[in-house]
Amino acid sequence: MADPKVVRAEANALVQELLARLDVADVRELEVTRGTLRVKVTKGAPPQAAAASASAAARPEPAPAPQPAGPSVVSAASAAQHADAITAPLTGVFYRSPSPQTPAFVEVGSAVAAGDVIGLIEAMKLFNEIRSTKSGTVRRIVADNGQLVRAHQPLSELDRS
Q: Residue 92's beta-bridge partner residues?
């Protein structure tokens, strides 16, 4: 039986590779199978419920309809080095709200405390809550809704309280 840590590391490396290829290629979807590991990445997938579970993600489902504009990559601006930036803990598509019909978790001027949810990152069809690591007032939101963000890139900047 394969070591779960090794499998997870291989899966993360494969996802990173596919996201990099998807970013530069003129395609909307890539799928690769290596041994028992199968990874599929898609540009422009609409957000699902934030409470998506691993069992629901494992069920086969129809492919989402392509959206006109695919996600773009957040550039690593000087904000990444800013001490009061909240950064992405993983690579994936960033969403500011749990669904298109609901308001964003935070806006410019919103007060946030450490631990407050500021957005979601979709990775491998799972939605991960992104929590603030600092307290303060949102000065600037760096990542746009639907953008592909890389791990450690800034999502928002805070003015410390």
A: 149
Q: Residue range 23-45: average pLDDT?
A: 68
Cβ-based neighbour number of residue 88 at 10 Å? 23
H-only helix segments in 25-124: 54-58
C-alpha–C-alpha distance, residues 72 and 144, integer Å: 9
**Does the pLDDT value for residue 119 go beyond 90?**
yes
Task: Compute how many other C-beta atoms are within 10 angstroms of the C-beta atom of residue 11.
Answer: 15
Q: What does DSSP say about strands 92-95 and 37-42: parallel, antiparallel, or unpaired?
A: unpaired
Phi, psi of 96 (to 5 degrees): -85, -15
Q: How far apart are CA 134 and CA 122, in angstroms?
A: 22
